[in-house]
From TrEMBL:
Residues 539-859 form the Peptidase M1 alanyl aminopeptidase C-terminal domain. One of its GO terms (biological process) is proteolysis. This is Aminopeptidase N. Residues 93-185 form the Aminopeptidase N-like N-terminal domain.
């Protein structure tokens, strides 16, 4: 497959002001008639042909201005039509079989209903069309089909007419979307659905009808989604000044979906996982996920739909910005510091490894073969961090001036990342010339920080290096904004936070008035997405873990205490007395957290959490997953033993808090499961008993799943009984059965590989349902104890899966490749087996473009 380059962008030679689509719907046969009004694009090079993209389509008929076109030919899957005039009308008829569409791109059948997924290049699987985001068109659509099979007919925009056939067997609906849009935002849904309906009055006084459509039987699990939608609409008005622009906003939940959700204009399509919730079947994490994703898709109405992307290299323009918007929204709806910590954990757990591996790319990539492979943590999450840095440097008010200007300037356009940065410069007054490097350079900067002290002056020396990444051997220094504070060790306070911007390879910053060497608190709030190597003593970390007034910095100190010990212990750098002293300090710091009555439990839970195995591995040039696992579990055992009583008192206190969805009760649930996981390492018999009792008494899914998660890792009678009970209790509820698969695949049980192998043959396992595939295999690939099994069985299992899944659902298959691509950072025996697995995939006679690109880049 050819490589597509950002530098090759050229405007499309034709405009398509209006598009008329007629769908005669059937699960096995849908006929699509497309009428395109096309005219020459005055700002593009003149072309004698129009390229209409197709993907696996059969053309039933084609006319130009009602007759035979002057010429036409196929170029691969695309249709080229000769057009000699300035304006033409093209009519194209295609026939498709949605029931055969297992890729879930384009028009497909899911549980008897029809739905679409067009981003990024799915529309070309429906009809021949210039399927690129810079071709904006106004759509009117007629849908018709059997009334009994498809009682609900939905499309973008507003329903303008409807009716039924003379015999009443068929019906039809006519939809019109007044907002010009690219084809990737097109959507339709036809099926037997019911809706929770509500309304929202915008700040301009317009009433908007809101519907959340689900299958019959799921309606009582839609309240949280609807409330989240209304909160999102209000928040976007208040914080970004953005008002909704149609009279109708529909959400539809489908159970077969490649990603989380899709922001189609006025008709968002969601994975059921991000819609359905009640306290019996959804965890606190699920509730938060729904609020975040509903917000994210809704916010796209402005950052994505009203202002869209010129080409797919600009994906972060909409995704990075919208992730930042959903993060700020969720922070405002709950605990700001805890949300920040969660976001950083995702960034470090997923994006940092991506940035240091063979798939590293800038947030605005320079080339791709398959765009679906670039819906990455880099484009989304690092993209959000880059915009967050601009916000930090500008301040909230100026940032808002920048976003207002961006929306005003580019409303109705297909814009670029450069347009965004320019609006930010003009709106905020910041000079972002050098800052643009964040868009073009991949790799996580490393910053060394040393603080020295002389007389009454403290000097902070900061040195940055941006590591080489594939195709980018040499990097330039980037502007890195650090929020810092210097603590007086004795008073335990600081005299104010400062913002320092490191914009050279190395710089020194001086601070006067310190009789003693202060304690440095740096990258507060995680103000920059970099990794810091600071010259800090354990005693200073203990100080910060207890005293820092920035919650993120406090969390960071706690993580650094544990990570430093674990890295030292795995590398053999610590002798027994140093080890003992370090474990003692960590235990003391944790005890202070357990007993700090100023802390709320949601934050306490963050401070008590151990760094993940993959994060520890990331701190080492070459990691031995087996050794890290042993060291991490040993520390957990040690801490669980030392803090046993204090943790159990904490558990007992948390267990008194009755169920509710408020922060206090959520915090109590988080604490209970955390205590259970420490207990599982230090006193497994007691933990099994406690977890079984928590499971049995649970009146909500958070407690029940937390208890089962702990039990799943223990070899006990309680484990088998509760796993069986869980399955029997919730069989038939797909989202909960997903949890049942995932709990077993991510467990610490020594037989996890065999368990996953067995679950593959479970009657409820289904390779065609991405949620089910992810629940078993993504959970497994993220479980170091199983995936990195010493004999390589985990790697072989993932390679087998990729090969089997690739012809069915290439997008989902390709998403499993990066886990194997980490081989360069893993000890040599395992690395060889990971490479073998990749090479075996690469040798397959026929691979999708998605998997081929990921495997070849991973083998590099
Ligand atoms: N913008 C949406 C991306 C998306 C997607 C991309 C490729 C294949 C399937 C997909 N489903 C949704 C989701 C979002 O970021 O809001
Ligand atoms: Zn998005």
């Amino acid at each position: 497959p050819p490589e597509i380059r950002r530098s090759d962008y050229a405007p499309f030679p034709w405009l398509v002001p209006t598009t008329r689509l007629e769908f005669e719907l059937g699960l096995e046969r849908t006929r699509v008639t497309a009428r395109l009004d096309v005219e020459r694009n005055p700002v593009a090079a003149v072309s004698p042909t129009i390229r209409l993209n197709g993907d696996g389509l059969e053309l039933a008929s084609l006319t130009c201005d009602g007759g035979e076109p002057e010429g036409r030919m196929m170029d691969g899957d695309d249709l080229l039509v000769t057009l000699s005039g300035d304006r033409h009308v093209l009519e194209i008829v295609t026939e498709i079989d949605p029931s055969a569409n297992s890729q879930l791109m384009g028009l497909y059948a899911s549980g008897g209903m029809l739905c679409t997924q067009c981003e990024a290049e799915g529309f070309r699987r429906i009809t021949f069309f210039p399927d690129r985001p810079d071709v904006l068109s106004t759509y009117s659509v007629r849908m018709s089909g059997a009334k009994a099979q498809f009682p609900v007919l939905l499309c973008n925009g507003n329903r303008v007419d409807s009716g039924e056939s003379a015999d009443g067997g068929d019906h039809w609906a006519e939809w019109h979307d007044p907002w010009p849009k690219p084809s990737y935002l097109f959507a339709l849904v036809a099926g037997d659905l019911v809706a929770r309906s509500d309304s929202f009055t915008t700040m301009g006084g317009r009433d908007v009808e809101l519907n959340v459509y689900v299958r019959d039987g799921d309606l009582d699990r839609t309240e949280h989604a609807m409330e989240s939608l209304k909160r999102s609409m209000k928040w976007d008005e208040e914080v970004f000044g953005r008002e909704y622009d149609l009279d109708l906003f529909n959400i539809v939940a489908v159970s077969d979906f490649n990603m989380g959700a899709m922001e189609n204009k006025g008709l968002n399509i969601f994975n059921t996982k991000y819609v359905l919730a009640d306290t019996e079947t959804a965890t606190d994490g699920d509730y938060d996920g729904i609020e975040g994703v509903i917000g994210h898709e809704y916010f796209h109405n402005w950052s994505g739909n009203r202002v869209t992307c010129r080409d797919w290299f600009q994906l972060s323009l909409k995704e990075g910005f919208t992730v930042l918007r959903d993060q700020l929204f969720s922070a405002d709806m709950g605990s700001e510091p805890v949300k920040r910590i969660e976001d950083v954990r995702i960034l470090r757990g997923v994006q940092f490894p991506e940035d240091s591996g063979p798939l590293a790319h800038p947030i605005r990539p320079d080339s791709y073969r398959e765009i679906s492979n670039f819906y990455t943590a880099t484009v989304y999450n690092k993209g959000a961090e880059v915009i967050r840095m601009m916000r930090t440097m500008a301040g909230e008010k100026a940032f808002r001036r920048g976003t207002d200007l961006y929306f005003k300037r580019h409303d109705g356009e297909a814009a670029t990342c450069e347009d965004f940065v320019r609006a930010m410069e003009d709106g905020t007054g910041l000079d972002l010339e050098q800052f643009r490097l964040w868009y073009s350079q991949a790799g996580t900067p490393k910053v060394a920080a040393t603080l020295s002290h002389d007389g009454d002056v403290a000097t902070l020396k900061l040195t940055q290096t941006v590591p080489p990444t594939p195709g980018q051997p040499d990097k330039k220094p980037m502007p890195i904004p650090f929020r810092v504070a210097l603590f007086d060790r004795k008073a335990g306070t600081h005299s104010g936070e400062q913002l320092l911007v490191l914009d050279r390879a190395s710089a020194e910053f001086t601070f006067e008035g310190f009789a003693h060497k202060p304690v440095l608190s740096i990258n507060r709030g995680f103000s920059a997405p970099v990794s810091i190597e600071r010259d800090v003593s354990r005693e200073e970390l203990v100080f910060l873990a207890a005293r820092d007034d920035d919650p993120f910095a406090r969390y960071e100190a706690m993580q650094e205490l544990m990570t430093g010990y674990l890295v030292g212990s795995v590398s053999g750098d610590l002798d027994e007395s140093e080890s003992e002293a370090a474990r003692g300090d960590i235990a003391e710091a944790l005890k202070a957290v357990v007993e700090d009555d100023q802390l709320d439990d949601l934050m306490r839970g963050e401070l008590l959490m151990m760094p993940s195995q993959s994060y520890i591995g990331e701190q080492m040039l070459v990691a031995d997953p087996g050794a890290i696992h042993v060291a991490r579990e040993a520390l957990k055992t040690d801490l669980g033993t030392r803090l046993g009583e204090a943790l159990h008192r904490l558990y007992d206190r948390a267990a008194q808090v009755p169920f509710s969805l408020d922060a206090e009760a959520k915090g109590a649930r988080k604490i209970k499961t955390l205590v259970l996981s420490y207990a599982a390492a230090s006193d497994p018999a007691k933990a099994a008993e406690l977890a079984a009792s928590q499971y049995d008494r649970a009146d909500n899914m958070t407690d029940r799943q937390g208890a089962l998660m702990v039990l799943a890792g223990l070899d006990s009678a309680e484990r088998t009984a509760r796993l069986l009970d869980f399955y029997n209790r919730y069989r038939g509820n797909a989202l909960v059965v997903d949890k049942w698969f995932a709990l077993q695949a991510s467990s610490l049980h020594p037989q996890v590989v065999a368990h996953v192998e067995a679950l593959r043959s479970h009657p409820d396992f289904n390779l065609r349902n991405p949620n089910r595939v992810r629940s078993l295999y993504m959970a497994f690939a993220a479980n170091p104890a199983g995936f990195h099994a010493a004999d390589g069985a985990g790697y072989r299992m993932i390679a087998d899966l990729v090969l089997e899944l690739d012809p069915i659902n290439a997008q989902t298959a390709a998403r499993f490749v990066p886990s194997l691509g980490r081989w360069r950072r893993i000890e040599e025996k395992r690395a060889a087996m990971m490479r073998d697995a990749l090479e075996r995939i690469a040798r397959a006679p026929k691979l999708s473009r998605d998997t081929f690109e990921q495997v070849t880049r991973s083998l590099g």
